[in-house]
Specification:
The protein contains twelve helices and no strands. It has helices at residues 5-34, 48-56, 59-90, 96-108, 111-124, 132-156, 159-167, 172-183, 185-201, 204-209, 219-229, 234-269. The protein is flat and about 70 Å long.
Length: 270
């Protein structure tokens, strides 16, 4: 049954209202970041706030640290999660269910509950105040979700395709790399984007693990420190917030087609 013109108009109206609510905070921060920061300054836009925030807040170094940590976490998590998801989704071996549900415990335990014991564990082996203190725990946190997500995809793949590949002599690695993984690009890109976003926005772990390593601070932690130095300069704070959020927005815009497709397919198959 085709929708009427009024139903189409109502749908667009609801979408426009939802879009306005979603974009209003972002637009407000951008506009605030473009306002003159000096007291008594006239109207107009001041693009120099972004340059001042970049220099005064050392965001170049902090963004570089966030890129290093996020890329390392995403690459390792995507590789290991895809392999583990393939094993749990396509193979049947003794103890697979127990191992899978044991792995899912990583999604149920909040990081706040383990960050202090984790700090002392890493300190005892000399890994605090290093990149490893940020990368390794976040890889472990991401593996549970990544394996769960990719297992759901591999379980939904066509058995006929896999069986045809096996009849042609393809082994597990060939089936995984050449057949199923290219078909699951939307699912993989969705997982990559979510892990990247969570890793980039992580605040508690860098705060605890880097007590004496200012040069290794990530962008959110650097923004928090910048906020403490500029409690009254709202324009500079807004400019700094835009600089920190911009990489996530850019990555989302690049991968949005795969992300939306992966979310829709996951919802339909779920």
């Amino acid at each position: 049954m085709r929708a009427s013109r009024a139903e189409h108009a109502l749908s667009y109206l609801i979408l426009l209202v939802a879009c306005a609510f979603a974009l209003y905070p972002l637009g407000l921060i951008i506009v605030t970041g473009l306002r003159p920061d000096a007291v008594g300054a006239g109207g107009g836009f001041d693009f120099g706030n972004f340059a001042d925030a970049w220099d005064q807040g050392h965001f170049g170094r902090y963004l570089q640290n966030s890129v290093i940590v996020s890329v390392a976490v995403v690459v390792v998590s995507a590789a290991v999660s895809s392999l583990a998801g393939y094993a749990f989704g396509t193979m049947r071996f003794r103890g697979s269910s127990v191992l899978f549900y044991l792995l899912l415990l990583g999604m149920m335990v909040p990081s706040e509950a383990i960050v202090i014991p984790l700090y002392f564990d890493l300190e005892s082996i000399g890994l605090t105040n290093t990149y490893a203190a940020l990368i390794l725990p976040q890889i472990a946190q991401s593996l549970a979700f990544g394996t769960f997500w990719m297992r759901a995809y591999f379980r939904s793949t066509s058995r006929e395709v896999v069986e045809a590949a096996r009849m042609d002599g393809a082994g597990h690695l060939r089936v995984f790399w050449s057949i199923l993984l290219p078909m699951g690009r939307p699912a993989l890109m969705t997982m990559v984007l979510l892990v990247f976003m969570w890793t980039w926005n992580e605040f508690l772990l860098p705060l605890v693990m880097l007590p004496n390593a200012e040069d290794l601070r990530t962008a959110p932690l650097g923004l928090s420190n910048f906020q403490g130095q500029h409690t009254s300069g709202t324009a500079l704070l807004a400019a700094g917030a835009v600089l920190v959020a911009l990489p996530v927005v850019v990555v989302y815009l690049i991968t949005q087609r795969h992300f939306i497709r992966g979310m829709i397919e996951g919802a339909v198959k779920g």
